[in-house]
Amino acid sequence: MPIHSANRDFVVTALRALELVAEHSSLDATTNPLPKPPIVGSGVYIGLAGHAWVYLHLWLRLRQDAPLRAHVHAALRVSSPARSSPWLDFAGVPDSDEASGTLRWLLVQARDSARTALEAAVAAAARGRSQRMTLLEGGLIGPLVVLVITHEALGEEDEAIAALRALLEFGKRNVLPAPREACELLYGRAGYLSALQHARAGLSAIHRLQEDKPLRPALQEALRDLNSLANAVVDQLFNEGAKHEVALEYRWDDTVYLGCAHGLAGIVHVILDEIAFVVDARTIAASEESQPEFEALFTPDRLARVRQSVRQLITHQFASGNLEPIDESPASDRLVQWCHGAPGLIFAIAALLRLSRWSHEFRSDSSMEWAQRIRRDLCVPVDSPEFAFMERAMDRAGDNVALRGMSAKGVGLCHGVCGHIYALLRLHRHYAESRNTGEGKERWLRNAHEFAKYVALGLGDEALPDLLTSADRPWSLYEGAAAVPCALLDIVSPMGARQPGFDLWAPSADWVNGLL
Known about the structure:
globular; 516 residues
């Protein structure tokens, strides 16, 4: 069956999955008919903020992507949503005022779910429960990021500023003074940096959608404070990681982990995202204030360590293509997961090669020393054997995901099938952005479609209980089926696909210009 003919089924299944997510959004365990709690706590990873993130993700994707809206419109016309469905308006004209009612419903659902999650987290903190500092696991952090973006999109400007200020204040109180070794993505300062990046990227997306709306001085000031705090966290990450002779090295629980959740791949990906923020702005050289700050933060040695860290990860690739979970011998080639295996290697390499491609295409300008430094000390020449070597390493990792990823634990993003869909879509995007006209990009999209068909079929028949009971929190975003609506809609328009809570929405260079 040709790939495009599956799009309608993916859309219909995604919208049905979203209804099921809404039915399992209660934090009250007494209302749960399942043998395991559907979600736990307030965070994005396994809690209610993960559901808020699903609504936010779908709103951003549908609001930004006209072809995706058209696919949803076509599927709804065939499937005939019920009169009570919030998607009924969308079955009309996809770019009409009526359709905007559905988009607003998604936005309000995201805001209200995040509010409920934040209230629960505040109550838990008042009872003495400690709060993690990261986007994925933080009961306060995840809801605050969603609220920053949704309040701004709904025109609730004072609330957006208040949420952003609360996010920054948490970082000053809890992240900067945290133990030096607390660096990884799931529980450490890299996860807090990811929260700042997602808040900034979400606000940037809103600005692109409201081009006639200038930045308010209060928001501009708060975002400059966000950038300063992000710089301080990046500085801490570099200082703690500079233990290895040439690369970065981090320990969690006294072990050198290599994957995304606890290890080097996740931390390097977040650092590369911060460098990409500077690169996408294209204007740092025009700011006398920020140029010295960039030079101090991203020194030649630090940039070289990032590049060498990606090389180091490749040396830990099994012959199978999988990534070793820890830097110890003998290592086990068992976990093919975003948290510990090959998907993390794909994301880390792709992030470096994306910057390398930018440096190849960007016009050389001797007055832009920061660009020359990134090109010289961080990036891999596009026409070099090393660039091809890194692409081959990504391909081997992708082959491993395609071969073994269906045996994952459930359908979630962390160690489930939906996480593997996003890894394969990241490979597809890499080759599509390189204008590769050969087998590369289509190969990975076909593989991603096979995984998506498995998820769609499982959600639609008696296999659903098996997909859910294998997950510890069966309706959470990172362990359960809340990831399904995102993955199945993203695969319909794959160039805009981003793994929720990890892979950043693309920033707006024009908007960023005023923040540096």
